[in-house]
Amino acid sequence: MTSTEFHLRNAVVMTGNGPSAADVHVRDGRIVDLHNRNGPSTVAAGDVDAAGLWLLPGGVDPHVHFGMPLRDGLSSRGWRESSAAALLGGTTTVIDFANPSRGEPIADAVLRWQAAADGVCLCDWGLHATVCDIAPERLAELDGLVHAGVPTFKAFLAYKGRLMLAAAELRLLMRQVKDVGGHLLLHAEDGEMNAAAEAVLAATGRTGPEWHPAAHGPESEIEAIRQAMLLAEETGCPLTIVHLSTAAGLDLIRGARAVGVDLRAETCPQYLFRDESLYARGGDDALTALMAPPLRSPADAAALLDGLAGGDIAWLATDHCAFPLEVKRREAAHGFAAVPNGAAGVGERLLAAFTLGVRRGLLTPERWVRVCCEAPAGRLGLAGRKGRVAAGYDADLVLFDPEATGTRLPVDGHPDPSLWTGDDWCGRIVDVWRRGEQVVRDGKLVPDVSAGVFLSRLLPD
């Protein structure tokens, strides 16, 4: 469907507040209005008849790494390949991370990331800015970045010697983020604890990928969250703990929120629906699951899913960072610490959460839509534009068949094994529109899809 004006008729419109029977009118890339109906609508020429299907807002994944350079020319899979997978999986908007080199102005890194994505990324996209240097000239940049539409920043308590900030440095950053009206995202692992554990493992020859989680114990995340929530309470900085992986960490976040700390949590499908048993298998299974933080126990996974369902975890992202398996195998010869961390997921998020959450009665369809679409858009500066099927919003729309079975993942057919490889998934992404342009038709990417656009974001008051 390439028309600038059309109607989607007879779908069940699924929102974070529940389903509704409505036809959707699209014109010039926006949703004009929704027409409630009491029965089937007449389908005219040029209309889309979506009888029997759900109509979802395009997914919003606020945590991806497309084409992320790591070292020596090594990078994760690129913008076009990764964004094509996103569209095939019903995600039309992503937010990536601009990572400055040591001493580089953050604004220069943002420009580099924009140049890499512009005209290449098929999703609409925004950027967070990583802060790994709290020199006064770096902190002075944050206000300009907020006004340039990059109001969210990421910091690390992990990766000693590379990205890690000390507690005193994180305090300074939090104060500045608060002062400029930004929002801070935090990778919460204790880098000192991880480095010490890794050194012991290396000294005793335990360097295979199965030992990776021993260098990133649950206590590392718990201690980092404890430090961060105290600093968030002290500074008043709005803070989100990204890729939360432990039940004890969630308990700390609940406690902090109960006393008024502006603290949120994000988690990812891998921490809900996969667990640490993959490491015990060794080989490719362990390499595929090599990420930071690592997969945890089944009890942690169950607790996090309960937290997501109940509203204690704000949204479901992916931390998509897909490195070819051959690269992981090659680097594993130097020990697990040399293996690039990350896994694919941007194309599989909606279907994994539907199959293992909604179909099992562990997530309601409404909560599924809220955590995959509405909540990240609303909190991270895309309210009024993305994440909802509502008048005035971009016509980012997904026709979804909830009765389909036997769906095969990964959605892009990539030959590498992934956490989600298989043909026993439920639901199917049928058609996808991004700002009114059809980008997926009958489960396949439309040829010659135009590129997405950069999204300047403004945080809610």
Question: What would you note in describing this structure?
Answer:
Strand 20 (428-434) and strand 21 form a beta hairpin. This protein is α/β, with parallel strands linked by helices and 461 residues long. The longest helix is centred in the middle third of the chain and has 18 residues, at 218-235. Helix 7 runs parallel beside helix 8. It has 15 helices and 22 strands. The protein is globular. The strands form 4 sheets. Strands 1, 2, 3, 4, 5, 6, 17, 20, 21 and 22 form a 10-stranded mixed sheet that branches. The protein has an 8-stranded parallel sheet with strand order 7-10-11-12-13-14-15-16. The protein has a two-stranded antiparallel sheet with strand order 8-9. The chain folds into 2 domains: 5-57 and 386-404 and 421-445, Urease, subunit C, domain 1 (Roll), CATH 2.30.40; 59-379, Metal-dependent hydrolases (TIM Barrel), CATH 3.20.20.140.
Layout of helices and strands:
Elements: E1 5-9, E2 12-15, E3 18-27, E4 30-36, E5 48-49, E6 54-57, E7 59-61, E8 69-71, E9 74-75, H1 79-88, E10 91-98, H2 106-117, E11 124-130, H3 136-139, H4 142-147, E12 152-156, H5 167-179, E13 183-187, H6 191-203, H7 218-235, E14 239-241, H8 247-258, E15 263-267, H9 269-273, H10 277-280, H11 283-288, H12 298-310, E16 315-316, H13 325-332, H14 349-358, H15 365-379, E17 397-401, E18 407-409, E19 422-425, E20 428-434, E21 437-441, E22 444-445
Parallel strand pairs: 1-5, 2-6, 7-10, 10-11, 11-12, 12-13, 13-14, 14-15, 15-16
Antiparallel strand pairs: 1-3, 2-3, 3-4, 6-17, 8-9, 17-20, 18-19, 20-21, 21-22
Helix pairs in contact: 5-7, 7-8
